[in-house]
Amino acid sequence: MLKIENVSKLFNPGTLDEKIALLGANLILKPGDFVTVIGSNGAGKSTLMNIISGVMKPDAGKVYIENQDVSQISEFERSRWIGRVFQDPMAGTAPRMTIEENLAIAYKRGKPRGFSFGVSGKTRAIFRNELSRLGIGLENRMGAKVGLLSGGERQALSLLMATFTRPQILLLDEHTAALDPARAELVTTLTETIVREMNLTTLMVTHNMEQAIRLGNRLIMMDKGKIILQVNEDRKKDLTVEQLLGEFEQISGKKMADDRVVLG
Amino acid sequence: MMTSMIGAVESGLLYALMALGVYITFRILDFPDLTVDGSFTTGAAIGTVMTIAGSPPWLAVVYAFIGGGLAGMCTGLLHTKGKINGLLSGIIMMIALYSINLRILGKPVVSLRGEANLFESVSVLVIGIGLVIAVMIALVLFFKTDMGLSLRATGDNNRMIRSFGANTDTTTILGVSLSNALVACSGALIAFSQNSANNTMGIGMIVVGLASVIIGEAIFGSKSILRAVIAVVLGAIIYRIIYALALRVPWLDAQDMKLITAVIIIGALVVPTIRRAVKQKSMAKKRTEDVLASLTTGRNGGAR
Fold first, then answer.
1. Are B79 and B158 part of one and the same domain?
2. Which PANTHER family has this protein been placed in (chain B) (predicted)?
3. How far is A99 from chain B (nearest CA, A)?
4. Best exposed site among A66, A158, A205, B186 by fewest CB in 10 Å?
């Protein structure tokens, strides 16, 4: 489904600030895989997401989606396959447009956008139905501007917009990190339900160790631009946060340095 | 007095198309496009020259529309593909158009006297109202289509719309083209109403457009696209009325108008900010007093 082959990325190449963001990273996601990604500051987690989604192009290596080399395809063209939720709740929605207009934009993911009305009687019924699955009453406020919603509501809407067209790959980049605990829990639960019900192939970056272990069927750990540990389904079931931190120290020879890490 | 008011409404309607163009770039795309100063004259030049060359005036306006669109497309290309700062792209095209407009006109001033005119059989008011209403309806409908939604999202959150597969370069170029097409169309209509075109008639036009947008939105609000579009048109008319009134002040001259326009814009931008700040401050003061009051009564209640 998704294959990352020997991908490397340098920031500020040839300057004093040169920084290796990714170094020969390899990863394969099978259809239906739900992989959580953890790692210390500057491990390359966000770069990995940006390389997959096409925001950045790799300096070396290739990205394949459904066996097709997409390494040089631009972000907007890749969005045909990829749904994405950002960390910033403001990033995934257009604030001056209404809830139904935002959904109409998401509904046309990867399709040509012509002169038919984005919100019609038919699509509005679809949107209402989808919104009701969130269970937070947004289906009754479809004409409201998204800028009026709370951070949690906006992130739940972003999640719905990223998923309801069944993308081949779902990328979640710390999408609960900017929310208060109660909202974060709501969005986490919604994520779990939506990914399971739609059987989406998912890659989720998180700072929450407990969440990384609880969610998904696989876990990977990154450090200094490399994937240093892959935990498969069988082992992940019995994993604890202590074991995970111990494992990190053993492989990288240092303590997990992450100012935002949540042990859960 | 009455005739000057009617004249103000008439030219306000014709300038309204230009204001709508400015609204598209300035408000919807969030792209301050200065091409307007050049493309307005381009429209006037194309309209005039085509008419003198014998094409029917309405067709000349269509050509002006296309010419303005091409100018806007160049600005859009400079900004998106050339990665030039938006303001600078507009300035570059404005300067380039100054020469191009002179080439089209052939000389600095071209008169339409004795030539066919769009307004010879139908009055400015009728054509103005008809055209403005048609453009308003077309714009409001367009901004509800899938393409229109992606254009609005480009100005609102371009990271988001890219992640849903829209090419923001294309939507930006489309928006800037549409905007300048309307501006040029307005320029041609003004040329017909003044019976001439000259190479400097577009200077300061962006400021007039901004003034119309800001005045309109300040008075009539901009909650929905429909409301904003109506507000911009009324803003353009009100601006012309202010202009006409200012000209009647004995010690003010036509040449002072640019300064007056600048003052109007500054006022329209600064007054709401001040009003908001004052309101917030008094609200905070009142709430603090309320909270303090509830605290003291609470304590007193406990002592008794």
1. yes
2. ABC TRANSPORTER PERMEASE PROTEIN YPHD-RELATED-RELATED, BRANCHED-CHAIN AMINO ACID TRANSPORT SYSTEM, PERMEASE PROTEIN
3. 12
4. A66
